[in-house]
Amino acid sequence: MKSPASFKKAAAWALPYWTRGPAGRETPHDLFRVLYFGWLVAFTLKVLGSAWDVSWHFKWLRDDLAPPHLLNSVGTAIVVALTVIHGYTGYGVDKAALRLIQWGTGVFLVAVPLDLINHRINGLDITSWSPSHMMLYVGTFFMIAGVIRGWFMGAPPGRERTVVLGAFFTFFLENVHFPEQHQEYGILSLGAWDNKVVYAEQILLRFAADQMGRPVDRTMITGFTLPVPDALYPVYAVIVGLSVLVVARALIGRFGSATLVAATYVGFRTVIWPLLTFTGFPPSAVPFFLIAAGLLVDVAFLVRIPAVRAVLGAVVVTAGAYGALMAQSAAMGPVYGWIKGQDGLLGAPPLATATAVWAGLGLLVSWLAIEWIVSRRRPREAGEPAPRVPVAAPAAT
Question: So which residues are the signal peptide here (predicted)?
Answer without folding.
Answer: none
